[in-house]
């Protein structure tokens, strides 16, 4: 079964994606490309593009609602790893459907 995320991408163009700077590849053991992140506070960063009035993470490739992929999938920060599609594996994540609605995409069933 293919993931609904492969033809969506709405959450990557809706929410601010903030994470601890220890995840940056410039830090020991980190992996998120620093070149794609902006400093937020002394201890946190955010994925570039996710704090705009019309957010879109700079790492998102493709067209929302058609075909997308994360350009740094193996190196994405924790919030992206923890954000699950609504209704997949029984997970209830209304934020997923809120993001989809924002981009005119149909609700995923429970
Ligand atoms: S909004 Fe939901 S379905 Fe769309 S990419 Fe994000 S988790 Fe996947
Ligand atoms: S890093 Fe990847 S999964 Fe995370 S918001 Fe950006 S495009 Fe989406």
TrEMBL record:
Pfam families named among the record's database cross-references: CxxCxxCC
InterPro entries with a match to the protein in the record: Puta_zinc/iron-chelating_dom
Protein name, as recorded: YkgJ family cysteine cluster protein
Source organism phylogeny: Bacteria, Pseudomonadati, Pseudomonadota, Betaproteobacteria, Rhodocyclales
